[in-house]
Amino acid sequence: MSGFTVAIVGSPGVAPEMGKKGTQSDLTLYNVTRDGHHTTVVEPTQFPEKFPPLLSALAMADRAVLVLYELSRPVAEAIATVDLTDVPTEVLAADAVGDDSLRTVFRGSRLAEAPVLRMGLPELRERIETWRVPETSGPVQVPIDHSFPVKGVGAVALGVVRRGTLHSHDALRLWPEGKTVEIRSIQVHDVDVKQAVTGERVGVALKGVDSDELTRGQILAPPEGLRAGSELLARDVRQCKYYKTDWGEGSKLHLSLGLQNVPAVIGPKTEGGFRVQTDRPVVYSEGQAGFILDLSATAGPRIVARVNLG
């Protein structure tokens, strides 16, 4: 079996045509299973009313499809956000959005080199179902995106295996907390399995933790290899060129890091960067990309900058 996760962002209405509706919250997931391959499509349902779901969808994805049926303010914000991420992206453009408009919108961004698709939804669905996750190695990592209690089972977490292979009865750390949990059982699209590989979306029953201790953004991984803390060093700042408000030391903003979204205060500058103080510990790896957000912005994009964290 294999799995692949696609974020569909920009103009709405495409994701529901890609598969069967599954988990629904501020994100909505749609699922397709064919010939042993599972495709999960993620839509940031509550964007643009809320901004974090857009980054969460992109953080979950192996690839993104940026849908341009019109050039509205929410679409412009999605474009600015996708540009700052590393998610491989293809553009699905309506005929009403001509090549000249695309060149203007994407000028100076990485999206200027993105493939532009002019196709119907059946063709897009077929294209998405051919995508595969590159082989990866290393210790297993499973970021949690949803969780809930199940009577007679206990705490269940949902997520995608981002690296390595997950096995039943693995003992893993629940990051950023220090608690050790056991993988009691694994399901892939409601089928019981003994293991799940990179790219597969899993539901795992956990021993050693209550469901109310689980939150989006926690990571199941071995006890070594990741970092946890609430004071981080941000380097290599790349500001969103459309964000025009001054910010700096003392600014109260938010940090988006993987599937985590936490209030943060910008600290003093240091050699090569600046400090970021979060209101609770977060989990991250050395050099991981994070995003500074201004969720109270009333004009322009709510994404302030991309940083690399140490």
Explained architecture:
It is a single chain. The protein has 310 residues and is mainly beta. The protein folds into 3 domains: 127 residues, 3-Layer(aba) Sandwich (Rossmann fold), CATH 3.40.50; 80 residues, Elongation Factor Tu (Ef-tu), domain 3; 83 residues, Translation factors (Elongation Factor Tu (Ef-tu), domain 3), CATH 2.40.30.10. Helix content is 12%, strand content 46%. The protein has a 7-stranded mixed beta sheet with strand order 2-3-4-1-5-6-7. Strand 5, helix 2 and strand 6 form a beta-alpha-beta unit. The longest helix is centred in the N-terminal third of the chain and has 12 residues. The protein is globular, with a radius of gyration of 19 Å. It starts with a strand and ends with a strand. The mean pLDDT is 96.
Short description:
The protein is built from four helices and 22 strands. With 310 residues, the protein is mostly beta strands.
Structural features:
12% helix, mainly beta, 3 domains, globular, Elongation Factor Tu (Ef-tu), domain 3, Rossmann fold, single chain, 6-stranded antiparallel β-barrel, 310 residues, 7-stranded mixed β-sheet
CATH superfamily of the largest domain: P-loop containing nucleotide triphosphate hydrolases
Q: Rg from C-alpha positions?
A: 19 Å
Which topology of the largest domain does CATH recognise?
Answer: Rossmann fold
Note the total helix count: 4
Distance between the termini: 35 Å
- Principal-axis shape equals globular
Per CATH, the architecture of the largest domain is: 3-Layer(aba) Sandwich
> Low-confidence parts, pLDDT < 50 over ≥5 residues?
none
Tally of separate domains? 3
Q: What is the number of E strands?
A: 22
Question: What fraction, in percent, of the residue positions are helical?
Answer: 10-25%
Which structural class is indicated by helix and strand composition?
A: mainly beta
CATH class assignment of the largest domain: Alpha Beta
Strand content: over 45%
Mean pLDDT across residues:
96
How are the strands of the largest sheet arranged?
A: 2-3-4-1-5-6-7
Q: Helix-strand pattern, N to C?
A: EEEEHEHEHEHEEEEEEEEEEEEEEE
Give a quick account of the main beta sheet: strands, pairing sense, barrel closure: 7 strands, mixed
